[in-house]
Design brief:
This protein has 4 helices and 9 strands, in the order βααβββββααβββ. It has about 220 residues and is α+β, with helices and mostly antiparallel strands. Strand 4 and strand 5 form a beta hairpin. The relative contact order is 0.21. It binds a DNA duplex (13 and 13 nucleotides) through strand 4, strand 5 and helix 4.
Length: about 220
DNA sequence: TCCCCGATTAACT
DNA sequence: GTTAATCGGGGAG
């Protein structure tokens, strides 16, 4: 079973995150390793930029976020809550700290491997959420900084592919999820009505402010 | 050095 | 709806 599509043009990724994010909707994320290939159709993304208080890059380069300041078309993978990996695609030119978080996808291929990686959860929950998506396709911190299309030290290769399915003509967008700063910046995009979107809760992902926005702790 | 808290998820009640 | 799990970054002292 071959993965459909051709790699996206790197120049498309060298644009501001809020431009790249909706462009990535309906593109295919594919990851190959020794066990085979797994691929999903991206249905939910979020943009993060350097002048953005909610972005890891907001306070300038550091050991953790330096990949965001590198060349576009690479993976920025960060560790969160002591147990989760989340995958981003780096955008903008070198020197600008920006990336697009991959939040959810529709499982298309390598579903057995993804299900195994996700401890047998049902199809619906395989890739619905940024950490779930990364876990399903097998992306970890070992892949941080990897160039798309180039094998990593861990023996994995990731691609973003265009199989001819265009992004939604009018993608839904609204506030980002799980952040506490710049909550009002509507830099989350998703495929309207898709059951694979992370905040889909029966009634569907709402417009700005409906749910799962800006949860506070303390 | 200490301490708080996060671009979350899963398992509870 | 609520909460534990779990650890590294970064601001405060």
């Amino acid at each position: 079973m071959d993965v459909p599509g051709d790699p996206v043009d790197g120049r498309a990724l060298a644009q501001p995150s809020p431009v790249v994010a909706p462009f990535l909707l309906n593109k295919i994320l594919a990851v190959a390793d020794a066990d085979g290939v797994r691929w999903v159709r991206l249905v939910e993304v979020e943009a993060y930029g350097e002048t953005d208080p909610a972005s890891h890059s907001f306070r300038g380069p550091s050991n953790r976020n330096n990949v965001m300041f590198g060349s576009p078309g690479r993976l920025y993978v960060y560790f969160s809550y002591g147990m989760h990996w989340c995958a981003n695609v780096v955008t903008e030119r070198s020197g600008v700290g920006a990336a697009v978080l991959l939040r959810a996808g529709e499982p298309l291929g390598g579903i057995e491997a993804m299900t195994a990686a996700r401890n047998g959860v049902r199809l619906r929950d395989l890739c619905r959420g940024p950490a779930r998506l990364a876990q399903a396709v097998g992306i970890t911190g070992a892949d941080n900084g990897a160039e798309l299309g180039t094998p990593t030290a861990a023996g994995r290769t990731a691609w973003v592919l265009d199989d001819g399915v265009a992004p939604p003509a009018r993608p839904a967008h609204g506030p980002r999820v799980g952040i506490s700063r710049a909550v009002e910046v509507p830099w989350r995009w998703w495929v309207e009505g898709s059951p694979w979107v992370s905040t889909f809760r029966g009634g569907g992902p709402g417009p700005a402010g409906s749910n799962a926005v800006g949860r506070r702790s303390s």
